[in-house]
Amino acid sequence: MTESNEPEITFFAKQERIYPKRVWGRYRKLKWVAMVITLGIYYLAPFIRWDRGPNAPDQAILIDLPNRRAYWFFIEIWPQEVYFLTGILILAAVALFFVTSLFGRVWCGYFCPQTVWTDLFVWVERIVQGDRNKRKKLREGPWTFEKLWKMAATHFLWLVIAWVTAGSFVLYFNDAPTLVWSFFELNVSSTVLAFIAGLTFSTYVMAGFAREQVCIYMCPYARFQSAMFDSDTLIIGYDEVRGEKRGKHKKGEPWDGRGHCVDCTACVQVCPMGIDIRDGLQMECIACGLCVDACNNIMDKVELPRGLIRYDTERRMSLPEAERSKKVVHLMRPRTFYYVVILALVGGVMLYALITRAPQELHVLHDRNPLFVALSDGSIRNGYVLKILNKTHDHRRYSVSVEGLENVVLEIQGAGDIQPENLYVEADSVGSFHITVSAAVEAGPPVPVTFILIDKQSGERSVYESIFVSERG
Ligand code: SF4
Ligand code: SF4
Question: Are residues 152 and 189 in the same domain?
Fold first, then answer.
């Protein structure tokens, strides 16, 4: 309180340490399965090989920054095709909206990296320090030898996990076996070490300390996910109609005139977000289902039906018990239909772009200075830079020609005796050529011309529209 006895306003709420209690049940098992699958994919995917031929990397998933390429199994993305990345992000966002509108925050509860790594760190903490009460006692107690070694062991294991996590991330940007081997040879670049150090620190802080604070204060998705909810979205809910009036219950006592909640707080003790689901749906709830398992175990003990806390829709929860069985869950609703349509549209466009993706590209840039040169024989010459993108994994030869002008003469400049009919471009790379186009034209406005590129092996054809300049504008 201040001197004037008015309540003091603080802008910072100190983090209340949460000690989630161990629980077992269907949703806990699902979370273990999700954790093993997601971590397994994350740690092992860089080691999957994918044969692209002798002139391309054989790592299935690779972001090759020095060569400006991204590889995902059979897909290779060049910098010019960044729209694929945009499409993937749009697809991922709409898929997330779709799943959220159906099943609530299952992404948050089971698959989000913040949840998965926090779960892993809590598991390590529990293995070393014991379950909820022991952890709480240890942390709040004085510094003894036991506390010292248990804390040291916990933080050491967290750092090891964080380091492996950071190292695995860097593997996606390098050839994984080579980089791993370079660690054994103590021959790792300082850039790689700096990235690993930074990512180790952020993993350690996010999963070891920040934990639920990330979901509550940092994650934008947590803020707007409620916009995707409606009364038919599956949420984790406490059945107030059945549970209230809550209160302690002794074995053998009748259940008449009271609710089924025995106020044991098991659902609160297991919650990784530290909330009480009996207070209603809250922004902090990540729909992990652990309170469902905890409550079901209690219901089994007191020999009452399971499901006092459960996955259900708000609409069904608000009905009297007798009417609930008639009200089915509506999965297909206007909102979910729109998401499906958007998913199909974006997915279809991306698939079409992928299937019709050309194995080569031609870009033509007109010289700016000089725009044209008048030759002694009366003809006009224009210069251009040709960029030929050979997206195949074979070395290729191309021929280039120009349409739109009579008796045109093409010459490749400054490159020995390379002929326009025989331009060599190495596999998976960009060939750059300076070409001049000469023609006997009268001075006048720019004439449209078409550059035609033909792959001499496959016959694949690419065109690029440009202009031929013959007088100053
Ligand atoms: S309230 Fe239940 S579902 Fe929500 S975060 Fe807590 S334990 Fe998970
Ligand atoms: S676990 Fe179930 S019975 Fe226990 S407090 Fe929570 S809702 Fe009530």
Answer: yes
In the numeric block, which tokens belong to residue 139?
A: 């942390």
This prediction's pTM? 0.86
Residue 39: give the domain boundaries: 13-357
Distance (Å) from CA 88 to ligand 1 centroid: 30
Using an 8 Å Cβ cutoff, are 46 and 168 in contact? yes
User: Which of 336, 357, 378 marks a domain boundary?
Assistant: 357
Q: How far apart are the CA of 222 and the centre of ligand 2, in A?
A: 25
- Residue 473 is assigned to a structural domain of this protein: no
Q: How many domains does the chain have?
A: 2
The reply to whether omega before 370 is within 30° of 0 (cis) is yes
CA–centroid distance, 271 to ligand 2, in Å, is 12
- Using a 6 Å cutoff on CB, does residue 275 contact ligand 1? yes
The finding on whether 289 has its CB within 6 A of some atom of ligand 1 is yes
Note the pLDDT tens digit of each residue in 423-470: 999 999 999 999 999 999 988 999 999 999 999 999 999 999 999 999
- Ligand 2 in reach of 263 Cβ (< 6 A): yes
